[in-house]
Amino acid sequence: MSEQSKPSLLETRKLTKRFGALLANDQIDLTVYGGEIHAILGENGAGKSTLMKSLYGFHQPDDGEILLHGKPTTIASPQMGRELGIGMVFQNFTLVPAMSALENIALFLPDGRRRLDFHAIRERVADLGTRYGLTIDLESRVASMDIGERQRLEILKVLLSGARILIFDEPTSVLPPQEITRFFQVLQRLREDQYAILFITHKLPEVMAVADRITVLRHGAVTGHLLRAEATQASIVQLMLGKAPPVPATNGHKTPRGDLLVELQKVSVDAAEVNGRRNVQLQEIDLQLFGGEIVGVAGISGSGQRELGDALLGLLPLHSGRRCVGGQEATTWSAARIRRAGVACIPEDALQMGAVRGLTVAENMILGEQARYSSLGGLMMDWRDVRRRAVSALGNVFAANPPRLDAPVETLSGGNLQRVVVAREVARAPQLLLAYYPARGLDVANADAMRQLLLHSRNQGAGVLLFSEDLEELFQLSDRLLVLYHGRLVGELEPPAYDAQRVGHLMTGGA
């Protein structure tokens, strides 16, 4: 059956959504069919997530219409969206860490207020797990699950609710390479069973690998609908940016290695539970970080990346071993003192760990440095100086259209919020910068600009510890590459020895 004669499951006609003066979606036409993977692409802030949330019932369009099975439909809430067969798997999972997988599923089911047949739920999960490769342990607490298991649980929740139209918002941004392959296998099986799949991503190789059709947004409007067979990465980027693709960042000229900035000697950290999440045990970590180098850290999710950074930052107590900062004994230093010694951090989750909801962009730009701009014991603030420095810092990471300084930080898109946090941390000219997945969720141009910024910091003499799930990015930027496995450093390589198979072997426990 041709696309023209194939009935659509979901359609938008001239859909428009405004937030005050911001036109987030501008007369968008979109058609979604069963049995296809439809990729939605665009720069950060292009309107992708707003469009998907309108389809799910989270936002209400200001103009235009949504058609479901050819009939105009009002989707007044996410609950109504689920009742109409639309499910959404968010980039930030909506799970209760202290509860089991089975309990999280039960909370999400439409009949969650009535007595539930847990035996029937287990049987249904087993059937779905076998059919789509979504195997999980229903008795496990979410807090103890790795990131791949949590995503499979989210997909199971949506399927058990009866959804036939599945929306995935940046689903691979948190997955290691092995889990990405597994996730794509799940998508292929769902497509074979005539599910309609909407797939938001910034990773063009993934689009070329799995999408059937592609819709590109720029500044809230559609700039093109493409079949995968007629698309190229260059043509997609041209539609996204309105110009030729940027020249990729490369690890070219490098400054000589500088002073020793931070050292860990035989550091171990206990596997304790903090804020509902269990830490990975670090075991006898020896690590030296010097100025003028980027040290990459590779490892599958949950191998101890977060714990290694927290041990460096003083956020986790050391069970044994020593920490030195700037040549000084710093084993008992607080995180605040380590930060004052010149260590900055781009956190894993910009909104939850790097910003404060309810504060403006300008206020978030001076977090930790309020005293610098205050007088009379904090009763007065030099807001003119705050704004001046904020504009200067944001200009380093926003080539155009930086966010308003008075905008509440939680209203920013994920990519723009990430760049605000990066701008703040880099503006402090740290000696050592810890960067957790800094290009995650960024479009092609901004991801490349982020990498250029890390290289610039390195070339100015700073040390950079880069955590990334993207081996290509690690190979591209790292002067040294460390490999973590179950809380141990199992390998250290330099550029001539970089090889995806070799690193992947070490990441999964190979000798």
Explain this structure.
The protein is globular. 33% of the residues lie in helices and 25% in strands. It folds into two domains: 10-241, Rossmann fold; 260-342 and 430-507, 3-Layer(aba) Sandwich (Rossmann fold). It is built from 18 helices and 24 strands.
Overview in brief:
The protein contains 18 helices and 24 strands.
Strand order within the widest sheet?
A: 6-7-8-3-9-10
- CATH architecture annotation of the largest domain: 3-Layer(aba) Sandwich
Shape: globular
Low-confidence stretches: none
How far apart the termini lie comes to 52 Å
Q: Provide the domain count.
A: 2
Number of helices: 18
Radius of gyration: 24 Å
Largest sheet: 6 strands, mixed
Please specify the SSE layout and strand pairing:
Elements: E1 10-19, E2 22-32, E3 36-42, H1 48-56, E4 63-68, E5 71-73, H2 78-83, E6 86-89, H3 101-108, H4 118-132, H5 147-160, E7 165-169, H6 177-192, E8 196-200, H7 204-210, E9 213-218, E10 221-227, H8 233-241, E11 260-269, E12 273-274, E13 277-278, E14 282-290, E15 294-298, H9 305-313, E16 320-325, E17 328-329, H10 335-340, E18 343-346, H11 350-353, H12 361-364, H13 370-373, E19 374-375, E20 380-381, H14 383-395, H15 414-427, E21 432-436, H16 444-459, E22 463-467, H17 471-477, E23 480-485, E24 488-493, H18 500-507
Parallel strand pairs: 3-8, 3-9, 6-7, 7-8, 15-22, 15-23, 18-21, 21-22
Antiparallel strand pairs: 1-2, 1-4, 4-5, 9-10, 11-14, 11-16, 12-13, 16-17, 19-20, 23-24
Helix pairs in contact: 3-5, 14-15
